[in-house]
Amino acid sequence: MGIMNGHRYTTTTTCLYDGDEELTVERRLFRFLNGFGASIIRFNDDMMWELAVLECTSVENDEWTVTYDTGITGDILPNRTDCEIASLLNKISNLKMKKA
Predict the structure, then answer these.
(1) Which of 15, 24, 29, 64 could form a disulfide with 54 if both were Cys (CB 3.0 to 4.6 A apart)?
(2) For 73, which DSSP code?
(3) Cα 24 from chain centroid (whole Å)
(4) Is residue 43 within 8 Å of residue 25, measured between CB atoms?
(5) Does the pTM exceed 0.90?
(6) Cβ neighbour number for residue 56 with a 10 Å cutoff
(7) Domain count, the chain
(8) What share of the chain is helix, strand, coil (3-state, %, to 5)?
(9) Which helix (H) or strand (E) holds 7?
(10) Domain annotation covers residue 100
(11) How far apart are CA 71 and CA 91, in angstroms?
């Protein structure tokens, strides 16, 4: 568990192999009380992140899916700095909850 710009996240690191090449993937998963979240990833200690906006699809099973209709983005956002990620996390955490 970590904190980035006041938001808590969990981290997973995975090593993938493509022939002789090793690729390290760091993923941070943010979950917000409004039912939205974010997944950010970076490869091989790169300083740039990719961000996907998530929506909770099952509270009971802690299931999340990528969503493209929040007004924040219509796709995955590549090549984002820490400052850009912090701003996007604030926007996602302030989205209005969807009605059931």
Answers:
(1) 64
(2) -
(3) 17
(4) yes
(5) no
(6) 19
(7) 1
(8) 10, 50, 35
(9) strand 7-18
(10) no
(11) 10
Q: Domain for residue 99, yes or no? A: no
C-alpha dist (Å) from residue 41 to 4, 19, 59, 96: 14, 22, 23, 25
- Count other Cβ atoms within 10 Å, centred on residue 36: 24
Tokens of 69: 């209709």
The whole domain housing 25 covers 2-93
Residue 33 in domain: yes
In a domain? residue 29: yes
pLDDT (tens digit, 0 to 9) for every residue of the chain, 100 residues total?
777 777 788 888 888 887 888 889 999 999 999 999 999 999 887 899 999 999 998 888 889 999 999 999 999 999 999 999 999 999 999 999 876 5
89, two tokens: 């996390």
